Amino acid sequence: MEQPDPTTTHAPDDDRTAPDATAPEAPAAPDATDDVDDAARERALLAGLAEYELGDEDLALLHGGGADGDDREIATTLPVLAVVGRPNVGKSTLVNRIIGRREAVVEDNPGVTRDRVSYPAEWSGRRFTLVDTGGWEVDVAGIHKRVAQQAEVAIELADAVLFVVDATVGSTDTDEQVVRLLRRSGKPVVLVANKVDGPAVEADASALWSLGLGQPHPISALHGRGTGDLLDAAMDALPTVSAHATPLPDGPRRVALVGRPNVGKSSLLNKVVGSERVVVDDVAGTTRDPVDELVALGGKPWVFVDTAGIRRRVHQTSGADFYASLRTQAAVEKAEVAVVLVDASAPMTEQDIRIIQHVIDAGRALVVAYNKWDLMDEDRRPFLEREIEQQLVQVQWAPRVNVSARTGWHTDRLVPALERSLASWDTRISTGRLNAFLGELVSAHPHPLRGGKQPRILFATQASTRPPRFVIFATGFLEPTYRRFIERRLRETFGFEGTPITISVRVREKRKR
């Protein structure tokens, strides 16, 4: 089969998965009459909320959620609170309890989850970044060095630490090893005695004084028992200003190149820079450290970060590969937009999907680049189309670009895709327009009845950008399928191409008379 020549003008079917170089036209701006109607609707809905039970956090959101502004520096310079501990002690359950929604993955199989995931959180008016560091595993062969490496990196990136111990099991040798690392770090530590579901187990929690980390705080992450007192203690330990979070630069937008090993990340960076900036080799895993390079593209400065390939099982690597994987994850979290490279000439793998999901979970703008297009024959193309339709059905909103990093084919289309994703990442919808949109949507497609009751949407506001986050006040729980329906219509109406968006629901009841 003759190979396609990427240096020639592409055929129309070559570009079925590649966006045009020009951005789509923006929706027409509402006229003055629409603005007046939207503002009147907003005032009426806000007045109706006075009949419902609202907390201080709700009131702060309602009064400040619609204000325009740059959320980037606020979101990236908040103090960092890390939740650490052995597998199966309830770390992810505690993270979900603190952030108020089921977002952190709860994994019963020890050692499977190793990714460090950050979540915005708030307690008593203080905002901070909560980090779930995953479980620490000591296998049957007793490889303690790997545990120490993971512990040192996780603790080093935090301003304070919540050390979670299973009170029903008590302290183990692994717990005591982590305690020694915590003491050497000098970081503030709050000892958490989890799984204290009742007064009968509090005696077991008291036994954890022997760890020498001060008072153990008995809680039940599953039921919420004692978590308020724990967070009060955590706020006392957490500094006001982070010593570790790095503000995103004001100027060049930061782009992380991520993907599986040997997918062409370094080759793409060299082609964009125009020189052999990084080492390229056929051996997978050549890149160890993230490489930052300031380049000018499309008349604008950009910071491109070449990262090490994310392997399938990070927790099974050691030494340089282990640290390279951690640095890659940190590079994604410090970036504003990630370009996920996929090998178009080979079948898409589960790891490709996992890397894309990792970028989404990190809340970064996204562009999917199908590299090695020059190595793909005609027989491969229909299979690639089918893989995209089946495996990326939930990520149809991400711009897709077909490129060849080796020859430079279509690399000029990368910048327009990045600009569209970043523009959506920064987009804010006025509260009036948002509620007008939801009013029309609910009128045409109301939430289905469940148990004879139908939840009613009271009010909605965009709480933040980068990525866009929406909060809906409702009289009852909105099912996940209906939330996905709202998200799909939001994208159809307002764009949001290339950015993840989150929709959270706060159920509120009427005040008792």
TrEMBL record:
<dbReference type="InterPro" id="IPR003593">
    <property type="entry name" value="AAA+_ATPase"/>
</dbReference>
<keyword id="KW-0690">Ribosome biogenesis</keyword>
<feature type="binding site">
    <location>
        <begin position="306"/>
        <end position="310"/>
    </location>
    <ligand>
        <name>GTP 2</name>
    </ligand>
</feature>
<keyword id="KW-0342">GTP-binding</keyword>
<dbReference type="InterPro" id="IPR031166">
    <property type="entry name" value="G_ENGA"/>
</dbReference>
<comment type="subunit">
    <text>Associates with the 50S ribosomal subunit.</text>
</comment>
<feature type="region of interest" description="Disordered">
    <location>
        <begin position="1"/>
        <end position="38"/>
    </location>
</feature>
<dbReference type="Pfam" id="PF01926">
    <property type="entry name" value="MMR_HSR1"/>
</dbReference>
<protein>
    <recommendedName>
        <fullName>GTPase Der</fullName>
    </recommendedName>
</protein>
<feature type="binding site">
    <location>
        <begin position="132"/>
        <end position="136"/>
    </location>
    <ligand>
        <name>GTP 1</name>
    </ligand>
</feature>
<feature type="binding site">
    <location>
        <begin position="85"/>
        <end position="92"/>
    </location>
    <ligand>
        <name>GTP 1</name>
    </ligand>
</feature>
<comment type="function">
    <text>GTPase that plays an essential role in the late steps of ribosome biogenesis.</text>
</comment>
<keyword id="KW-0677">Repeat</keyword>
<dbReference type="InterPro" id="IPR016484">
    <property type="entry name" value="GTPase_Der"/>
</dbReference>
<feature type="binding site">
    <location>
        <begin position="194"/>
        <end position="197"/>
    </location>
    <ligand>
        <name>GTP 1</name>
    </ligand>
</feature>
<dbReference type="InterPro" id="IPR015946">
    <property type="entry name" value="KH_dom-like_a/b"/>
</dbReference>
<dbReference type="InterPro" id="IPR027417">
    <property type="entry name" value="P-loop_NTPase"/>
</dbReference>
<keyword id="KW-0547">Nucleotide-binding</keyword>
<feature type="binding site">
    <location>
        <begin position="259"/>
        <end position="266"/>
    </location>
    <ligand>
        <name>GTP 2</name>
    </ligand>
</feature>
<feature type="compositionally biased region" description="Low complexity">
    <location>
        <begin position="19"/>
        <end position="31"/>
    </location>
</feature>
<dbReference type="InterPro" id="IPR005225">
    <property type="entry name" value="Small_GTP-bd"/>
</dbReference>
<feature type="domain" description="EngA-type G">
    <location>
        <begin position="253"/>
        <end position="426"/>
    </location>
</feature>
<dbReference type="InterPro" id="IPR032859">
    <property type="entry name" value="KH_dom-like"/>
</dbReference>
<feature type="domain" description="EngA-type G">
    <location>
        <begin position="79"/>
        <end position="242"/>
    </location>
</feature>
<dbReference type="InterPro" id="IPR006073">
    <property type="entry name" value="GTP-bd"/>
</dbReference>
<comment type="similarity">
    <text>Belongs to the TRAFAC class TrmE-Era-EngA-EngB-Septin-like GTPase superfamily. EngA (Der) GTPase family.</text>
</comment>
<feature type="compositionally biased region" description="Low complexity">
    <location>
        <begin position="1"/>
        <end position="10"/>
    </location>
</feature>
<feature type="binding site">
    <location>
        <begin position="371"/>
        <end position="374"/>
    </location>
    <ligand>
        <name>GTP 2</name>
    </ligand>
</feature>
<dbReference type="Pfam" id="PF14714">
    <property type="entry name" value="KH_dom-like"/>
</dbReference>
